[in-house]
Specification:
DUF6802 domain-containing protein, DUF6802, single chain, mainly beta
């Protein structure tokens, strides 16, 4: 029997894949649904954001994404890692990017 909980839409982070970059702030994950590192803790959330699919992972369990991969409708993708410099300044660093498929 279906219940109202079956129709709940997960809370997704506020993220614009078209403007995301080095100076973007922290991305809070509120509803992780996958355990990609196999430690028994849900750490990854996938969601649609405009014309892109986002895969966001919080591997240190602090509530904010450590890794993001954005895959756009045209096959373009970019992977990012959240970093903290020695002086405490935080930023995103692109770790990979390109085009999927034959494009």
């Amino acid at each position: 029997m279906a219940t109202t909980e079956s129709f709940l839409i997960p809370d997704v982070p506020d993220l614009d894949p078209n403007t995301f970059g080095h100076d973007s702030g922290a991305v809070a994950l509120t509803d992780p649904t996958h355990d990609i590192d196999g430690d028994g803790v849900l750490d990854t959330q996938t969601f649609d954001a405009g014309d892109a699919v986002v895969i966001a992972s919080d591997l240190d369990s602090d509530g904010d994404a450590d890794h993001l991969t954005l895959i756009h409708e045209d096959g373009g993708y970019a992977s990012w890692e959240f970093r903290r410099d020695g002086d405490g300044v935080v930023h995103w660093e692109q770790t990979d990017g390109g085009t999927l498929g034959n494009g």
